Amino acid sequence: MRNYRVSRGVGKSPEIFGLSEKYLGYLALGLLLGFIGFFICRVLVSSNLIGILVFFLIIGLAFFYCQSMSVKHGEHGMAKQSAHQKRPRILVARTRSVFLTLKK
Q1: What is the C-alpha radius of gyration for the chain, rounded to an integer number of angstroms?
Q2: Exposed/middle/buried for residue 46 (C-beta within 10 Å: 0-12, 13-18, 19+)
Q3: Degrees (nearest 5) of the Cα angle 74, 8, 17?
Q4: Which of 10, 18, 33, 95 has its CA 20 to 30 A from that of 27?
């Protein structure tokens, strides 16, 4: 049996398979969606094989998506990217009173 190191020390986020904490949450969400997809296929199609294929397809897509996002953005990259998208492109000051109230 393989041992995976989860605890990296105080103040550091957990990491499994190269996925940091936020991406682990997304992977868990993909696992939940896989189970839901399996149950839907099991009820509608009543075939275990199709349900299992759908389950592994969703899990595989979620894992590779999370892995690529982790490599692309890093541990805090998604938060930085969303903060960058939410910042205003232009600040408009129509009066000079904004600058008169600044502390020197």
Answers
A1: 22
A2: exposed
A3: 55
A4: 10
Q: How far apart are CA 73 and CA 81, in angstroms?
A: 8
Give the amino acid at 68. Answer: S
**Nearest 5 degrees, angle CA 10-CA 12-CA 14?**
110
Domain boundaries, given as residue ranges, for the chain: 20-73
SS3 state of residue 27: helix
Question: Bridge-partner residues for 19, per DSSP?
Answer: 16
Q: Which two tokens stand for residue 79?
A: 């938060």
Longest dimension (CA), the chain: 73
> Is pTM beyond 0.70 here?
no
In the prediction, which pLDDT does 4 show?
Answer: 64
List Cβ neighbours of 72 (8 Å cut-off, separation of 6 or more).
Answer: none
Question: Do residues 51 and 45 touch, judged by C-beta distance below 8 A?
Answer: yes
Q: Is the pLDDT of residue 8 over 70?
A: no
